[in-house]
Specification:
The protein is an all-alpha fold. The chain has five helices and no strands. α3 packs across α4. The protein is elongated and about 45 Å long. It starts with a helix and ends in a 12-residue tail after the last helix.
């Protein structure tokens, strides 16, 4: 395997259960990345965002590092504090 796409395809072919986990992680990484980018664009520290949205700074760190998958309510509170909203788009492979 020479790329991330090759790896994802290999997992999908050999282990459907693991493929679901990979797909979830890939999907959430986009949300975490968007939160991080917007926070940086607004020149906010994690602590400042934490104060604005009422989510602990440690949770925001874990979300941005993709070490935790937050519930939708937490994501919405963070996005609202960033002046954004959650939207739904078609899944693209």
């Amino acid at each position: 395997m020479t790329s991330w796409e090759d790896y994802k395809n290999h997992v999908r072919e050999t282990n459907p259960e693991a493929a679901e986990i990979v797909d979830e992680a890939v999907g959430f990484a986009g949300v975490a990345g968007a939160i991080t980018v917007k926070r940086h664009e607004m020149n906010l520290s994690v602590e400042e965002l934490s104060e604005r949205c009422g989510v602990s700074a440690s949770t925001i760190h874990r979300i941005e590092n993709c070490t935790v998958t937050p519930n939708v309510g937490t994501v919405i509170r963070i996005l609202k504090a960033l002046g954004c909203r959650l939207s739904v788009e078609p899944w693209e492979e």
